[in-house]
User: Fold these one by one.
Assistant:
Number 1:
Amino acid sequence: MKKQLLLTAYCLLHTAYCLSQTAEDYFKKGIEKYNAKDYQGALSEFNKSINLNSKHAGSYLNRGLIKNILKDYLGAITDYNQAAFLDNSNASCYFNRGIARFNNKQYYLAAADFTEALKLDPNNTEIIFNRGIAKLENMEYQAAINDFNKYIETNPANADAWYNRGRAKYFMKDNNGAIADYNKTLELNPKHAGAYFTRGYLKNILQDYKGSIDDLTRAIEFDPKYVKSYVTRARSKYSIRDDKGAIADLNKALEIEPGNADALYSRAYLYFFLPDFNAAIADYNKYIEIDKGNAEAYLFRGQAKYNLQDYPGAITDFTKCIELNPQNAEAYFSRGSARMASEQTTYGCDDMRKAGELGNKEAQDITEKYCN
């Protein structure tokens, strides 16, 4: 689900520079082709305008906007740099460069550009909103909240402002404040899928599983292709022992996105505790192909193999888990159990002692009873 932002660049402007007629003609043709959504054609016209007049700030500005649309963010930034050099009093140069930098994931620099734009256009609340978004993505949560507060003062009917302030409050661990903002978002826009998802996700964390399921069902109604809604709803269903419903949601998530690691891991975990060890192993196999660095995946797959009496396979997985996380007491305990079941008592006792040293009480008891 894409965040609903107002990252809308300034409209293409016809600037009043004293230019040669030919360069201005190409500039005007670029505007016409932009309006017709012929972006490559517009790019060509702005190139021609700049070739004839390298000081045409408007052509750099608008060529930057075209490049941003075409996802050439570095090219757009370069053009906005030149536009700002030629006309440093034009707020749109800094605002549009901020948009390009945001799209290029340069959130700190984007926020700095929005601040420069505000110095030139202090009453433009859209700049404040976009700076809030940039600060949110840069994990400057309190600063983001401050910007959204200012924006909401003059734009209280903008649902996205409440939604994004709610996101910032969530990251600040202000759960009640976040839910209040999501509530306001949905009051203003009852079809805001993002607000239903994030409120449902938060309710899952707060163990309000029924409320979570209700919200995520609404999120799916408005955005049926968003995999995270199905995965989170599955977790809430599992928490109220609706195992079939949880499996169905994870199946749907994987139908939409077959390689989704989160859905695979969640379904493997659910199969493990049903228990359906063969199905769990099959999903852990797929998950580990995607993420070979998750120690817990090897631990659970190893335990599934242990329960199926595949002790060599279990030992291999527990060993990999220990390699990734040498302080995992459960992995030593599980490998010790598998080794003892394989009549490798000496090695098994070594593992039990290590697990006991790491605080596993059951391992300590086994060591005392069988390994002395």
Number 2:
Amino acid sequence: MNKTHYTYLLTNLSPKSKKKYYIGFRSCYGNPENDPYYGSSSDKQFLEEIISNTNNVEKIIIAVWPTRKEAHAHETQLIREHRADISELFYNNPYTRENKIPTKDRPLCSVCRVKPAAINYVKNDIVYYRSKCNECNGIKKRHKPFVPRWKQKGYKQKTTCDRCGFRAKYPSQIVVFHVNGNLDDATITNLRSICLNCVVEIDKDDSPWKQGDLMRDF
């Protein structure tokens, strides 16, 4: 039997306590509607009001996913959308794992504006925070692979110069030029593969030819 992966919402309906919610994800065998699992947490309030009192808890299946990874990603998205990790209406991480400091007393991350800022250090019982959360502090700026416009249009750079017939040993010895000087015109008739020697001559001749997109310098 294949596993089912799903996200769910728990609602505490007990008249003796404040109405609170919990967002989670779960993998189980069979129909999620019949899964008796209600979640896990080290939070004392969650254990007392949810785990030990399931008769007063409403469980709603939000979505079913083909993989556990997708279910986890959806849970993360829901927590961010509802700010469940810092809201007092949710059981999701009501305290930080570091020194049990209430998240409501912490500033929000200056980048994502969703998660609490990371703790920098504690001195004389005073907590000093970073400007970003742990996740944003670890994110490195990533750039998509650069693809020149002529390559996007399907043109393949040649190994022989279209101007002088030079045969290149390395790809870097040949560059692509636009005959009419318009880099947006990537039609085959407007593109030429030119060797570096001819590049110098083209520049000296004051030709309208222009070299195609260069690699970005990040």
Number 3:
Amino acid sequence: MRSGESRRSSPLCTPAHSGQPGGSPAENRSALPSESCGVARWQIIRDHIAAKNVGLAHMISRKFRLGAVDEDDLLSEGMCALGRAIDRFNPWRGFRFSTYACNVVRRALLRRSKGELPVP
């Protein structure tokens, strides 16, 4: 960034003051965006991805209606698997998220229906 340019301020991350030089080192440290800024952004992105892919977990859990396991338990397990898929997804591998999430949810439901996962 050039010295004359100003940063675009994000509504999630605003520095403590305008970043003017001077002041004590403690004031300068407080001017830097905190680590919670990245966490807040990641939480918003994660919630958005989860909201857009809830139907995927519903569709796969409907296909796995197997005898002893309750429908709600399968859906709950599918949602937990969707959350794990969001956390572990690597977009640089070249796969779409839905492809990856489908496999993660399907594996989790298969394990649950076979009784490999304990009932919470």
Number 4:
Amino acid sequence: MLLKANVPMMQIWDDHDFGSNNQGKNFGMKKLSQAMFNAFYDLPQSDQRWSQEGVYNSQKFNDGTKSVKVVMMDVRYFRDPSHHYDKEPCEETVSMLGDKQWAWLEKELLNDRADLLFLVSGIQVIPPLVATSKRHPLCAFNKRHRKANLAAIADLGEDGLVGMNAEGWGEFPAERRRLLRLLQTAANKGNFRRSIIISGDIHFAEFTRMVVPPTQNMKAVELIEMTSSGLRQNWASTKADPYRLPVVANTRGTGLYDQGCKIPFKYDGVWYKNCTTVQNPAGQSGQPWCFTKVSSRGEGLGDSWGYCAPAGADIPWGRQGRVGNPATFARDPYKIQLATSNYGRIEVDWTKSEIALQVLTPHETSQFSGEIAGETIVRFDIPQTVG
């Protein structure tokens, strides 16, 4: 109670708080779930969640010179069925938020301003749709909705892009485009200096980055998402995500850290699952490096290598963060998947105009980086619009 009395607290749910696995609007006890949610968090009777359907909510924190807006979307209460083989058949609409919540969200993002926006979704936003061969059971691709959702994928320049085979906004391509374009509109209006997406659900943690392409009237916008999920469980998968933050390197030991490492890569007959300190193609050893181009067989190509960015180095979206125990992330420091549990932490340094996005696990020790398993640092002193 002491914590609640002194620290502002916000709440949202996902499927296992709301009802059953991957459930949406047709869950029969959703009204009871909402009443129990409100009572569990001891929400005051003046809270809108006692009178509205759904638990979406927002709050703005402002000390007179700095402001942060947190917007929490309810991706369960109004969500239409996503698959033909869900507990209910596909319907005439394929909506994630429903009309009322969409109207509320547009007002929250377009009619307000703050230095920073944290947009919270129970499920991932940035990862795109699964491979084409996996689309057939999705309601978004039945006869009624196929054309509109294919157009949404094309509009974002994602034709042929292979995403993760897991629940997320990617299963609703037109809804996902609507959300991404809404964030882009808010950024182009100058409503927020930086927008960060926070999500969960997926049973591992990862950091993703997407540049939403420009339109005739809007500049492109860079979005960063931090996903943290998995208490007393993990999903030690090798799921690909084309938008997962890359490990970055410079060019043959010089210049900017702006080249994405190709991991894993093969060098002198040995496979490497992360940056390595073995002798590089220039004959030097001791400093972590990687290949930035590989053949179709994963073999490093000639002089296409560079030193991996050390902690604190400038990288395209901010600064290189600290990396924890490799036992928690296997081969990719931006995908923490092997720890028993993980949880997220965000620290804002207003003097440096930086946001530290961190994933913590019980496995980290002072031998590595304190409690931090993975970290990236995002700058907000430069425009998030691109071009």
